[in-house]
Design a protein that fits this description.
With about 140 residues, this protein is an alpha/beta fold. It contains five helices and five strands. The chain has one domain: Rossmann fold (3-Layer(aba) Sandwich), CATH 3.40.50.9100. The chain has helices at about 20-25, 30-40, 55-65, 85-90, 130-140; strands at about 1-10, 45-50, 70-75, 95-100, 125. It has a five-stranded parallel sheet with strand order 2-1-3-4-5, with helices on both faces. α2 packs parallel to α5 (about 130-140) and α3 packs parallel to α4. It binds 1,3,4-trihydroxy-5-OXO-cyclohexanecarboxylic acid. 1,3,4-trihydroxy-5-OXO-cyclohexanecarboxylic acid binds near residues 77, 100 and 102.
Length: about 140
């Protein structure tokens, strides 16, 4: 079975409590369960992580690069400004799918309209809610 890392950046551990009008009512724990289940339905062995510490995300991406592991990445706010994240994504050899629960390009804050991840992604799935993670896994499974 192909291993896939689903990596989540800052504040996504508070899903379900955090601005539910934007991010919905699914909790982070439910998201983890869903991703593992969706993955196994697609023949993927999914491991899900979340961190509020940028270096930890970079370490996971470095491991993904070493092991050529495909990645689904919601880097949350780091998406919009972290050049260290840009560099970490640039070195990946297996496919990377960028996912966002909301659609940052349609949100009023100008800073959300830039992504350092997109140049390295084979697909960007945004504004599909939690189901976007399923679509991202499907995109990887179909490659
Ligand atoms: C987000 C969108 C980002 O702009 C924001 O900083 C997040 C979540 C999303 O999933 O919609 O934290 O990545």
């Amino acid at each position: 079975m192909t291993g896939v890392l689903v990596l989540n950046g800052p504040n996504l551990g508070r899903l379900g409590k955090r601005q539910p009008e934007i991010y919905g009512h699914t909790t982070y724990d439910e998201l983890v369960e869903l991703c593992v289940r969706w993955g196994s339905e697609l023949g993927l062995e999914v491991t899900v992580h979340q961190t509020n510490h940028e270096g930890e995300l970079l370490d996971w991406l470095n491991e993904a690069a070493d092991e050529a592991t495909p990645v689904v990445l919601n880097a949350a706010a780091w998406t919009h400004y972290s050049w260290a994240l840009y560099d970490a994504c640039a070195q990946l050899s297996a496919p990377l799918v960028e996912v966002h629960i909301s659609d940052p390009s349609q949100r009023p804050e100008e800073f959300r309209h830039t992504s350092v991840v997109t140049p390295h992604a084979v697909a960007v799935i945004a504004g599909r809610g939690i189901d976007g993670y399923r679509e991202a896994l499907q995109a990887l499974a179909s490659l």
